From TrEMBL:
This is Bifunctional epoxide hydrolase 2. It holds the Pfam family Abhydrolase_1. The lineage of its organism: Eukaryota, Fungi, Dikarya, Basidiomycota, Agaricomycotina. GO terms for molecular function: hydrolase activity. The keyword Nucleotide-binding does not apply. InterPro entries: AB_hydrolase_1, AB_hydrolase_fold, Epox_hydrolase-like. SUPFAM superfamilies: alpha/beta-Hydrolases. Belongs to the AB hydrolase superfamily. Epoxide hydrolase family. Keywords: Hydrolase. Residues 35-177 form the AB hydrolase-1 domain.
Length: 390
């Protein structure tokens, strides 16, 4: 995980743990006898995304562990092959229920039957949410970061009642959104549709501007540093409102993600002023994704959009997160609002114990909140963890 120009802070160590069919790479710090905190990254991130908050969290009295999740970083299949994951590989291992099982297995492998809190950022928020929803006996609290967790898919309800509203569409919502976006002038596409396609990995790994410049622009454009980020509730959930979001969410139909972020790429001066992701730290991500590609993480999106691969989650239809929950995001993060109504559903329906003070939007942060404003994140996590400590 280290690069020649960067060393992890003293006290954070990396190693590999056998987990089910994986050799899972983890970063860890803190006393091995202390209560466990698990930190789950999103896309396109790694365990090292938590580098700025791990030691302060351990100082609160926790053992802090951040894995490279399935398909990412130095976590590899135990079958022995080391080639990068390809689009044609089996998608079954990347189903949400399997990602959650990985995290339960990680806690067990580390010698814990309970986890004080599971903290997930971006797509990791979904994994953390399902961990808390499915295994409240293991995960005693949950922190959802950037991506609101809206719970499991629904099942048709009261279908024998002729007056009951329809509860299931024959065409998936994702498919309807794809068609409607393509019909706009100019035509658009949803970023998850692009990420689920066969070309996204190569487009990004072999971006015309180079991989490092691509990642630097992607991180910059979704951060508080990009002046065009002005997130706000979208109002009525319709295609016209959806299409007002930045192009990194609602893309021009023929554009690649490399095309999109090039428009918002930081100037030389902006890049030099970036204190939260300087070149030496950006090099960590560039080196790792240059080695593995992005397909492992992209497969998570493919499973999310595939109704057949998500069908197993309907067994939890109507189930809520009953353990204490917190939502933490940057004030300049469009992720809060990218799905109209998602934050409200999370706060007032899906999470039974999310207090008003625990819905937090951090000043001066965009999407990469724990990297952009680590001190504020630590303060909010410390308050929440102290409150829910058992």
């Amino acid at each position: 995980m280290d690069s020649p120009a960067y060393q992890l802070p003293d006290g954070i160590r990396g190693r590999t743990v056998p987990i089910r069919d994986l050799d899972m790479h983890i970063l860890e710090t803190g006393d091995s006898s202390s209560p466990l905190l698990l930190l789950l990254h999103g896309f396109p991130e790694l365990s090292v995304s938590w580098r700025k908050v791990m030691l302060p969290l351990a100082a609160l009295g926790y053992r802090v562990v951040a894995p490279d999740q399935r398909g990412y970083g130095r976590t590899t299949p135990r079958t022995g092959y080391t080639r990068p994951i390809s689009y044609e590989d089996d998608l079954q291992p990347f189903k949400m229920i399997n990602l959650v099982t990985d995290i339960v297995a990680l806690a067990y492998a580390l010698g814990y039957r309970t986890v004080s809190s599971v903290v997930g950022h971006d797509f990791g928020s979904g994994v953390a949410g399902y961990c808390a929803l499915i295994r409240p006996d293991v995960f005693k609290s949950v922190v959802l970061m950037s991506a609101p967790f809206t719970g499991p898919p629904s099942l048709p309800f009261d279908v024998d009642n002729p007056h009951s509203p329809a509860t299931e569409q024959l065409t998936s919502l994702a498919q309807m959104v794809d068609v409607a976006l393509a019909a706009l002038q100019p035509p658009r596409k949803h970023y998850t549709a692009y990420f689920s396609g066969p070309d996204a990995n190569a487009d990004m790994v072999h971006a015309p501007q180079g991989l490092s410049a691509f990642l630097g622009a992607y991180f910059h454009m979704k951060s508080a540093d990009w002046p065009e980020n002005d997130p706000h509730p979208l109002g009525a959930p319709n295609i016209a409102n959806l299409a007002t979001m930045p192009h990194y969410y609602i893309m021009p139909l023929e554009a690649t993600m490399a095309d999109v972020v090039q428009r918002g790429a930081p100037s030389k001066d902006e890049a030099e002023r970036n204190s939260w992701l300087p070149d030496a730290e950006l090099a960590l991500f560039t080196a790792q994704f240059g080695h593995t590609g992005f397909q492992g993480g992209l497969n998570w999106y493919r499973c999310m959009r595939d109704a057949q691969l998500s069908r197993g989650l309907t067994v939890f239809a109507g189930k809520r997160i009953e353990v204490p929950a917190m939502y933490l995001s940057g004030k300049k993060d469009w992720g809060v609002y990218q799905t109209p109504g998602a934050a409200e559903k999370m706060r007032y329906d899906v999470c039974a114990q999310m207090e008003e003070e625990d819905f937090v939007l951090v000043e001066g942060a965009g999407h990469w909140v724990q990297q952009e404003q680590p001190e504020q994140v630590i303060a909010h996590l410390a308050r929440f963890l102290n409150k829910v400590k058992q």
